[in-house]
């Protein structure tokens, strides 16, 4: 592995250099996987409180403003994933000082972007929620929920950045602990604000916002005091490198923006076909899906720095072992997640809505169709993350664009004309299946460039 002569005797051993086979890979990725699963769990609990103790109109309102929140998550994910690939590659090459400067600049950029979008969102709040399709019934809930969340936008962006860069720094367990602390805080405050205090959807937003603060505060404290490979220093990055970070991370940005657009299309379609009850059913579906795919998201996020590190160090033999292990894990997990979704769909939906409600009937019918997407989505998620880790933002963006927007938008616009509501639920499984096929073609096509097969 290439190292810097000046730093090789005093730089700490990097945790990424100790990951090789399946077991060590799972040990390294495990905290990130737990973190993402727990994040999905407390996100879904947040929505359950709204559904059970406010009403399903407030639940629909949360999904109406989700596309706007997706833009914010997309920006932070773009900086985090693109930056992680650059930083991990530099550490693999032995340039730890450069990695630290880049790391510091990315955190500062996330903070400034958060402040900018917080002010912008509050200034145009009413225009935004109307543009997202809020009806007169849903607009007051949207205004209250989104307005409160916008106050915490800087913390939200830093949370997403630290979630990725903690793993790059070789500290996934600390990241997991902070996310769990954030999640437990969110759940506790949801109960306090919504049930005893009766704050409604404003309480849900305030609980989420306060919980957003915990991981960034923990990250700032840790990296200010850290003596490891990554810590805060004088920020710096060449303009070409920053452009490369944005381009390489653009696949994740595209994925988030695409999800925002498709969520908007889903909302508009469901309002037309089934009214506010349809949007509530869709919200249950969306949050349940997020919870179930967090395993794939966490695994892909957890192994990305390892792939980038070995790409930077030129260790092709280890890279091949890692890819084989990843594909095995994705294959087994896909079958398990699909089985769990099919067997537990009705019980999961029953947590959100009473079994005799129209919302329950719509969601239960749709989930048993939608669940087939879990057989394929893990491959697309991992393939996009793989190419980002290898600094091939173009291919990563294509895979992400296919599975989160292009294919699903086409199916969503066409299938409901022939199959009604069933066409809405069929759009995602068909899109994920074709995107997985495209991902396999790209992985095979680029095998000679990256030596992972």
Largest sheet: none
Counting DSSP H or I runs of 4 or more residues, the number of helices is: 17
Structural class: mainly alpha
Query: What is the strand tally?
Result: 0
* Structural shape: globular
**Proportion of residues in helical segments:** over 70%
**Contiguous runs where pLDDT drops below 50 for at least 5 residues:** 1-10
Oligomer: single chain
Strand content: under 5%
Radius of gyration: 21 Å
Number of domains: 1
Mean pLDDT: 84
The termini sit apart by: 20 Å
Q: Topology as H/E string?
A: HHHHHHHHHHHHHHHHH
Structure notes:
The chain has 453 residues and is mainly α. The protein has one domain (21-450). Helices cover 83% and strands 0% of the residues. The chain has 17 helices and no strands. The chain has helices at residues 22-53, 56-93, 96-123, 125-131, 139-150, 153-168, 172-194, 200-212, 214-225, 239-248, 250-313, 316-352, 358-370, 377-389, 393-419, 421-445, 447-450. It is globular and about 60 Å long. It is a multi-pass membrane protein. The chain crosses the membrane at residues 28-51, 71-91, 103-125, 145-167, 174-194, 200-224, 245-270, 290-311, 323-349, 369-390, 397-419, 425-444. GO terms for molecular function: antiporter activity; xenobiotic transmembrane transporter activity.
Question: What's a quick, concise take on this entry?
Answer:
This protein is an all-alpha fold and about 450 residues long.
């Amino acid at each position: 592995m290439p190292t810097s002569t000046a730093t090789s005797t005093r730089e700490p051993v990097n945790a990424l250099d100790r990951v090789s086979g399946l077991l060590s890979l799972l040990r390294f990725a495990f905290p990130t996987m737990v973190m993402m699963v727990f994040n999905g769990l407390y996100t879904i609990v947040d929505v359950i409180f709204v559904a059970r103790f406010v009403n399903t109109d407030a639940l629909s309102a949360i999904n109406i403003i989700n596309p706007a929140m997706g833009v914010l998550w997309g920006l932070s994910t773009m900086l985090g994933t693109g930056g992680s690939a650059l930083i991990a590659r530099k550490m693999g090459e032995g340039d730890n000082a450069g990695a630290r400067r880049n790391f510091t600049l990315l955190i500062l950029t996330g903070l400034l972007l958060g402040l900018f979008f917080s002010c912008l969102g509050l200034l145009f709040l009413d225009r935004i929620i109307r543009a997202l399709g809020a009806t007169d019934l849903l607009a007051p809930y949207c205004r209250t929920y989104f307005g409160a969340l916008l106050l915490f936008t800087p913390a939200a962006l830093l949370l997403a950045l630290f979630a990725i860069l903690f793993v790059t720094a070789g500290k996934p367990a600390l990241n997991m602990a902070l996310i769990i602390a954030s999640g437990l805080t969110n759940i506790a405050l949801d109960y306090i604000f919504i049930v005893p205090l009766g704050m409604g959807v404003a309480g849900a937003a305030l609980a989420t916002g306060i919980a957003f603060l915990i991981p960034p505060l923990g990250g700032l404290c840790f990296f200010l005091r850290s003596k490891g490979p990554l810590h805060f220093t004088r920020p710096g990055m060449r303009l070409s490198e920053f452009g490369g970070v944005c381009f390489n991370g653009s696949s994740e940005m595209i994925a988030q923006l695409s999800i925002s657009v498709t969520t908007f299309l889903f909302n508009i379609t469901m309002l037309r076909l089934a009214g506010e009850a349809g949007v509530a059913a869709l919200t249950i579906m969306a949050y349940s899906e997020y919870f179930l795919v967090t395993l794939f998201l966490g695994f892909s996020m957890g192994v990305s720095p390892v792939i980038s590190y070995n790409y930077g160090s030129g260790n092709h033999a280890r890279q091949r072992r890692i890819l084989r292990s990843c594909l095995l894990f994705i294959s087994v997990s896909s079958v398990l997640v699909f089985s769990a979704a099919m067997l537990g769909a009705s019980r999961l939906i029953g947590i959100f809505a009473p079994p005799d409600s129209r919302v329950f009937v719509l969601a239960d019918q749709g989930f048993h169709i939608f669940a087939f997407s879990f057989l394929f989505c893990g491959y697309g998620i991992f393939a996009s993350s793989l190419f980002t880790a290898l600094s091939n933002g173009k291919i990563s963006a294509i895979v992400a664009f296919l599975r989160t927007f292009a294919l699903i938008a086409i199916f969503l616009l066409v299938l409901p004309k022939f199959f009604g509501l069933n066409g809405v639920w069929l759009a995602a499984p068909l899109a994920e299946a074709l995107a997985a096929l495209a991902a396999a073609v790209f992985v095979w096509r680029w095998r000679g460039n990256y030596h992972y097969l």
